[in-house]
Write a structure and sequence with these properties.
The complex is a heterodimer of chains A (115) and B (113). With 115 residues, chain A is mostly beta strands. Chain A has no helices and eleven strands. Chain B is mostly beta strands and 113 residues long. Classes of the chains: A mainly beta (115), B mainly beta (113). At the A-B interface, strand 5, strand 9 and strand 10 of A face strand 4, strand 5, strand 9 and strand 10 of B.
Chain lengths: 115, 113
């Protein structure tokens, strides 16, 4: 149980384009989803927290107009990187929690390369 | 702010026992997690401690002392597949009933024959 999927797993795009990453909880209802970014050899950095049906809460230094988060249902959250630039190249990972549980379950991650 | 410290790298021999320490200074503490992350993959959940003491789960055990801001992950009967990064993460109360995980930088464990 508690499986989280992400799509796509890999994306390569040109600078200036937008990229959408989907995060789905497959066998549970995710009351809260988290988006992280991880640069090589560094730890996970929380970007934003989103609760179903409400606006995401962004961490300091994360541009909400650049990283659009939509959490429209209890099983799906999307992160859109708008006008991506090479410095946005990173490993993006989502996680989800279900009501009454302390554990975050992570998706497999999406590796983004912006050329 | 939050501060989480763990060693950067450790090496241990197959079949041995290794202890990975984690110290933290944080406000609004609401539990400590250990995750395993293989290179290029997402983290997988290992353990969760919110009360002082030892939690044992197979070859892996995790200990927490809230008064000392200290935890360790103990891995027994090491196997080559245990070579990975081990992330200590502290759950904090971010207000309005919400919680966040703050991760340490991870300890890269290399298991050698």
């Amino acid at each position: 149980g508690a499986v989280v999927s992400q799509h796509p797993s890999w994306v390569i795009c040109k600078s200036g384009t937008s990229v959408k990453i989907e995060c789905r909880s497959l066998d549970f209802q995710a009351t809260t989803m988290f988006w992280y970014r991880q640069f090589p050899k560094q730890s996970l950095m929380l970007m934003a927290t989103s609760n179903e049906g409400s606006k995401a809460t962004y961490e300091q230094g994360v541009e909400k107009d650049k990283f659009l988060i939509n959490h429209a249902s209890l099983t799906l959250s999307t992160l859109t990187v708008t006008s991506a630039h090479p410095e946005d190249s990173s490993f993006y990972i989502c996680s989800a929690t279900q009501r009454g549980s302390e554990t975050q379950y992570f998706g497999p991650g999406t590796r983004l390369l912006v050329l | 702010g939050q501060n989480i410290d763990q060693p950067t790298e450790m090496t241990a021999t197959e079949g041995a026992i290794v202890q990975i320490n984690c110290t933290y200074q944080t406000s609004g503490f609401n539990g400590l997690f250990w995750y395993q992350q293989h290179a290029g993959e997402a983290p997988t959940f290992l353990s969760y401690n919110v009360l002082d003491g030892l939690e044992e789960k197979g070859r892996f055990s995790s200990f927490l002392s809230r008064s000392k801001g200290y935890s360790y992950l103990l891995l027994k009967e090491l196997q080559m597949k245990d070579s990975a990064s081990y992330l200590c993460a502290v759950r904090v109360d971010s207000g309005a009933g919400s919680y966040q995980l703050t991760f340490g930088k991870g300890t890269k464990l290399s298991v050698i024959p």
